[in-house]
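Subject: Sanity check before I submit

Could someone independently write out the structure tokens for this chain? I want to compare against mine line by line before I put it in a report. The sequence has 178 residues.
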Amino acid sequence: MAESRVAYRYAKALIELAQEKNVLEQVHTDMQFFVQTIDNNRPLYLMLQSPIVPHAKKYNVMRDLFQSRLHPITFSIFEIITRKNREEVLYGVAKAFHELYNKHKNIHVAHVTTTFPLDDSLRAQFRQMAGETLGKKIELEEKIDPSLIGGFVLRVGDKQIDQSIKSKLQKLEQEFKS
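---
Independent answer below. Compare away.
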């Protein structure tokens, strides 16, 4: 819990600085790139979390990987956090930054669960369906769950549309038991 509060504070400071310097979109892109890099590279994540790896080594790795690819303001938060020996919160900062960015841009997250990866056409249909539900911009988070058997589950805020075969079979089972 304390780590998430620390990450949120760093993210809030970064978003305010990015807005002040008119580089919010660039910093957001950088933070998304960082999250994607960490998500696709478990050893990098583990290295940042490790209390055994010296902080100087962590900084050198971060500098070599990201300094030339990121806006100076984005990289400066990495430097500050590393200098304070808090590398374990970097990933949380990037995630919190994205949440604050969405809040600032009035973008809501819709979660869709299907049994297969979505193509662009289906993605657009789910965004439209979720957008009509809320009347706002939507960012779609996708999850694959083979246990649904077929269909989908769309969750937007506190509303859920469950059109999965699994839930229909469960309802049918309950009807037969009654």
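---
OP: Matches mine. For the report I'm noting this point. Residues 104 and 124 are 23 Å apart (CA to CA).
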